[in-house]
Amino acid sequence: MSMILYIIINVLTFILFFLDKYLAKNKGNRIPEKVLFVLMLLGGSIGALFSMYLFRHKTKHVYFVISAIIFSIAQIIFMAKFYSHIL
Question: Structure pTM?
Answer without folding.
Answer: 0.86
